[in-house]
Design brief:
By secondary structure, this protein is an all-alpha fold. The protein contains seven helices and no strands. The two termini are about 35 Å apart.
Amino acid sequence: MKVIDKILLGLSATGMIALMYLVFMVVPADRAQGIVQKVFYVHVPAAWVAFTAFGVTGFFGLRYLMTRDLRFDRLAASSAEVGVYYITMVLITGPLWAKPIWGIFWTWDLRLTTSFILWLLYLAYLILRRSVGDRERRAQLSAVVGLISFLDVPIVYMANRVRASQHPAPVVGGGEGSGLEPIMLFTLLFGLFVFSTTFVLLLRARNGQAALEDEIEQLYLQRD
C-alpha cells in the first residue's frame, strides 16, 4: 500500500469514527424532526459523493473519447462502480428518514424519482461494460452512456429547487428559513470531507485493481 493510500485510510477511518461521535454525542436533535434527522449527516454526504463520482465518470469518459487512452476509461468505470454504492446508500437512508416524518418509505416525488433513475442509469452503465467483450468498443460505448447519464445529476440537484417537493428544502442556499446551527453545519461539512476522502481511497483502490485486471486480460490475449 502506498503512503498516500495509508494516509487516506487513516483519515477515512478516524474521520468516520469522529463523525459518528459528533452525530450521536454532540449535535443536538432537530427540534421538528427529532433524532431521526441525524440520518441527514450520512444521507447528504453520500449524495454529494455519488454526484461527484458520476461527474468523474463523465469527465474521464470525455477524456477517453478525446485521447483513446484506456487509462481514462478505467478511471471512469472505477468511479462509476464506487458511485453506485453511494447512490444506493442514498436510496436506503432516504426512506429510513422519510418513514417517521412522512409516514411512508417512498413517494414518486420529483427528487426521489430522478434519484432512482440516476441509480438505474449507472447500473445500466455497469451492465453495459460487462456485456461488451471488445475493449475499445466497450470503452467508447461506456463513455457515451456515462456522459448522457450524468445529465441526470443536475436534474436531481435542482428538483426540489424548481418545483414544490415533499423532499425537505435545501438547508444551505435554500432561501428564506433555510440554514443550520453552527455545530450542525460543521458536522455536515466534516461529513462531506470524510465521505470525500473515503471516495478517493476507494477510487484509487478500484482503479489499481482494474489496472491489474487489464494486464491479465492482455496476457490472455497474447497467449491466444
